[in-house]
Design brief:
Elements (H helix, E strand, L loop, with lengths): L9 H38 L7 H23 L7 H5 L3 H35 L15 H28 L3 H15 L1
Length: about 190
Amino acid sequence: MKDLTESFSGRSLNVLRLIRQVMNAIVIVSGCIMALTFFFVVILRYGFDADLFAYEEWLMTIAFWMFFIGSALATHNRCHINADILGIVMRNPTYIWYRTLVVQIIELMILGYLSYLGIAMIVEEIMAYPMWQKSIALKIPFMVPRLGIAIGFIMMTIYTLLYVYLLLKHGPSKVLLSEDIQQAEKMVK
């Protein structure tokens, strides 16, 4: 299954596409901002013997958003790095399906707990208002990067839940697991 989003239809398809497009935009814009910032830091530091004031603070905030939204996109595209030896050895589509289902359910439980912690982190920040923790120089509220963390975990949980739903809906079919089967066949040869 190449694109998780395209497995749905109607309004849910449009919502999932929009969310993915927004997340792609966040990652692209964040990457460009980080690259330009480092470019200007080098120019200012070595060309003009100056310093860009407190750039670490806003870059760290942008980095949190980029990393966690990027992780959600990787969950959507199923392109996280894994060390799956069983996936290489197994050839039976039914066994591959059961293994994938078990792995995804474990991942869903872990991500569900991490999403809960992310939401608890945001609620804690909101409850602390107006005494929010802030960065030293630019006074960026810690809630800004923490919101990126929470949204990233929530989106990873949603995409994993959707994948588990599709696994259960289609059962051990070659259509859904064709990439896993093809990868296993390539590794065995």
